[in-house]
Amino acid sequence: MLRFEIEKTEGQSRLGKLYTAHGEIETPAFMPVGTAATVKAMLPDSVAQTGAQILLGNTYHLMLRPGADRIQRLGGLHKFMNWDKPILTDSGGFQVMSLSKLRTITEEGVSFRSHIDGSLWHLSAETSIGIQHKLDSNITMCFDECPPYPSDKRYVANSTRRSMRWAKRSKEAFIDRPGYGIFGIVQGGVHPDLREESCRSLTEIGFDGYALGGLAVGEGQDLMFKTIGVTTPHLPADKPRYLMGVGRPSDIVGAVLRGVDMFDCVMPTRSGRTAQAFTRHGVMNLRNACYKDDPTPLDDQCHCPACLHYSRAYLHHLVRTKEILGVMLLTWHNLTYYQDLMKGIRQALREGRFTEFAQGVFS
Amino acid sequence: MLRFEIEKTEGQSRLGKLYTAHGEIETPAFMPVGTAATVKAMLPDSVAQTGAQILLGNTYHLMLRPGADRIQRLGGLHKFMNWDKPILTDSGGFQVMSLSKLRTITEEGVSFRSHIDGSLWHLSAETSIGIQHKLDSNITMCFDECPPYPSDKRYVANSTRRSMRWAKRSKEAFIDRPGYGIFGIVQGGVHPDLREESCRSLTEIGFDGYALGGLAVGEGQDLMFKTIGVTTPHLPADKPRYLMGVGRPSDIVGAVLRGVDMFDCVMPTRSGRTAQAFTRHGVMNLRNACYKDDPTPLDDQCHCPACLHYSRAYLHHLVRTKEILGVMLLTWHNLTYYQDLMKGIRQALREGRFTEFAQGVFS
Questions:
Q1: Which of B25, B104, B112, B284 is the most buried (most CB within 10 A)?
Q2: Do A207 and A79 sit in the same domain of this protein?
Q3: How far apart are CA A56 and CA A65, in angstroms?
């Protein structure tokens, strides 16, 4: 059971708060990805300093290494990784499809081989929820299949209906307790009728929140926005909505415009490892030789250590010499940029000027 | 000109303070290595938190990337890398010998090809000192040759005498100013007569401090200690002594026993990148499967973040999954261990029980 309060709305956009056993989350919220029990190249204190109030962990990665039973014995994921704020875990369904090999999908669940050592594993609604319990995840995600894009409509329909049956089994396997909850995942590809059907199925089961899955898989921003737009009206107004694996800053703003409350994406962290920086001057590639003598900070409106203490020339030097500190500083900066974006969105909602704020992003 | 005060002695060991334009250094001191204008995988604030009061920078690496003129234009090495405490730079002589290709040594200096792109470079006493000025190094090192070990005595003698002529040229090229100084480097291999001759040559020139070069190059701890023991008595008692590139904790304690005041070594940082941890329980390899379920901290007497907030099981997991955070935490821990060792040495000297302290290390 998770309490969610909507403080204010503007059009379809919502300013809210989600309460968990490990603290509250102001929404719209962006969740940094901590795949293998670490946000890559960041200490948890530093992640918190960026403004992040919740992290995402990956069931698929953690079940393989170090193993869910081991994390449970060591006191749960919060203690294991020294993060005492809320954690959401995905169900493993998406990674099984995108990372593992030799998958077999049946009504019961999925058999697959580990991408690390080829060992054979099995995941089902029941085992996925069980693992997420062992991790002590505050927000458990239903086990689902994310069909590849594009897929023919018949495949998407069958897959979506099976995911809805898995959603029911996930909910039944979930052990409810105060400050913990389970989210359903809407599938249906880019088909409005299947999305609506999926929303109806999940709403009948009843969840603490509703995620939009199967998007940002290659369909493009226009079709993604369109699909979000035909989905959120069919979801309960009083529950949080989470767009999985999204995205670029403009994706986030466009989704908030369409009633989404939560996001996660590897983009800020992965970009930090490939010399890309999100700034108020646009996306910059620090490998670029134009920065080698640039004494100015990356983003003069940013308060992260990379911007407060270093020049673009120094960051360029770190990138060129493949120094770990370059990855550390750019990751820190990008996560700060994303959290500042979310603060800006929330502030605009609070002040009733989010529509105007969003126009600034898309103009 | 650098002021050095010896507060207390015990046998040949000395407790002292070295004053620079960027702050003071308590000796015996260990200098973390910041090769390419970064202590690998550490923010400067974190390096300072370990207790480090001075860093070492590498002339060879910095002249190649990003270039000494560029660092000068950007305000010097302290500003470039956001480290406002003292910096010592080596002269490049050692790295030219160990890293570069196609070296030609003449009386004038050394021509070599960069290990990065094969480009042709030249270093001499005058250019090395000039680069160190551009970096704004607090402690400039003389340009010298570090002969390979073993070398025949005739080669070592000729090389040492040339290094002494380079030392004279280095001193002449050095622009003296308050809070900045230049150290001579004693060479002479493992030959007591050559070491004595080298000490005499350098003392005649007159330096702010004296380094012992050409050690820890494969001669073993016994012969290294023996060579230190026949060298330090020939150095001025009132100037700091610096053993270059050393070493393991027992090397440091043994050298302090023989009158050495300063050290640098890549060991704590490099070990942090290869899963080795220095602890009060000995050296541990965190890759080892014996740690995979170990809920205890790395070193329960250590106050670094790795020991305060994480289990050995978590560190093992980070190492196995090749997570950058593993490198960050183990580097931080190892640097903390080394600085705690130096604090322990200084405390023992202050309390007149260093001989006893050293016996604990060698028993």
A1: B25
A2: yes
A3: 16
Residue B152 is a catalytic residue: no
What is the domain-level CATH number for residue B160? Answer: 3.20.20.105
- Residue reference for tokens 């919220």: A29
B38 touches chain A (CB under 8 A): yes
Is residue A310 less than 8 Å (CB to CB) from chain B?
yes
Query: What is the pTM assigned to this prediction?
Result: 0.98
Q: A261 catalytic, yes or no?
A: no
CA–CA gap between residue B341 and residue B59 (Å, rounded): 28
Q: Which domain covers residue A294, as residue numbers?
A: 266-363
Q: With contact defined as beta carbons under 8 Å apart, do A277 and A284 qualify?
A: yes
- Tally the domains of chain A: 2
For residue B306, the distance in angstroms to the closest alpha carbon of chain A comes to 10
Beta-bridged to residue B349, according to DSSP, are none
With a cut of 70, list the residues of chain A below it in pLDDT: none
Q: Is residue B73 part of a domain?
A: yes
A77 in B contact zone (CB under 8 Å) = no
Q: Is A323 at the interface with chain B, CB within 8 A? A: yes
- Kindly give the residue spans of alpha helices, DSSP state H, lying in chain A: 44-49, 59-64, 68-73, 77-81, 93-99, 125-135, 153-173, 192-205, 221-231, 249-257, 267-272, 305-309, 312-320, 324-350, 354-362
Task: Indicate whether this complex's ipTM tops 0.95.
Answer: yes
Chosen from B99, B317, B331 to mutate, greatest number of chain A CBs within 10 A? B317
If asked whether residues A40 and A180 sit together in one domain, one would say yes
Residues in B touching A324 (Cβ below 8 Å): 40-41, 324, 327-328
